[in-house]
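Archive maintenance. Older records in this collection stored only the sequence; we are now back-filling the structure field for every entry so that each record is complete. The fields below show one back-filled record exactly as it appears after the update. Entries are processed alphabetically, and Class II glutamine amidotransferase is next in the queue.

ARCHIVE ENTRY
Title: Class II glutamine amidotransferase
Organism field: Terrabacter lapilli
Length field: 280
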Amino acid sequence: MCRWLAYSGSSVLLEDLLYKPEHSLIVQSMSSTMGAEPVNGDGFGVGWYGERDTPGVFRSIEPAWNDRNLRDLSAHVRSPRVFAHIRAAIGSPVQQTNCHPFRRGRWLWMHNGFVDGFHAMKRDLAMALDPDLFADLEGTTDSEMLFFLALTHGLNDDAPAAVARTVGLVEESARHHGIAFPMQGTIATTDGETTWAFRYSSEGRSRSLFHSTDVSTLRKQYPDMPELHLLSDDARLVVSEPLRDLRGAWQEVPEASYVAIRGGEETIRPFKPLVPAGTA
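Back-filled structure field:
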């Protein structure tokens, strides 16, 4: 599958997130320890928020470990909110429009997992999109389709409800096609103010997902780690797998749950799909 991270807090250089941790996302692109595949070399993407209303995005089909432009960019770009994703394709083409994170307006979206039976359901799902959004669907992945379905179902107004309706629609379509366990994975999305990260699968065996422990607690636990003193108290990370082996630094997001992070406030709530009204 894929690996990803979502950061919010004090402004940091991208390289501090992508390269410096001992088990950084770049290391994971070559040697993931908790993913379905150890190598995630089918492209990457980084999204960040700066001085403009909409986020910047840099995506490439190069392996993350081998892209000099990413290395240079990461040493110069600083941001208080970052999404980063490394891709392991499982059927869709390796092309830039299929690399995460996906962007529309102020929103970013990324996914680790798959929609089983997507080929059979693709027409049904596409027909459920808001007609005003359909023309902007650029790639061929189930992940981008999920994003546009969430936008259709009210992502701008209520992100958890929109994702619940999106997953509910996928599962209802799968039922008509005789597909038992269509949804698998973790999803992250942000509007630049709040980050939501979801862990869900139809089978109840989701891909791994962790959130970081409160930074002030970690400073007390590891007083000799200078990098912890560079972070604000509201700094938070959500990751597919931990970036370094620090006891007590990571908490697993429970199965069928989502975490919402806004400033220093972090909440975890149950996640349950909801079939949209009027779905045939």
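Update note: Residues 3-114+185-268 form a domain with the Glutamine Phosphoribosylpyrophosphate, subunit 1, domain 1 fold (CATH 3.60.20.10). Residues 159-176 form the longest helix (18 residues).
Entry marked complete.
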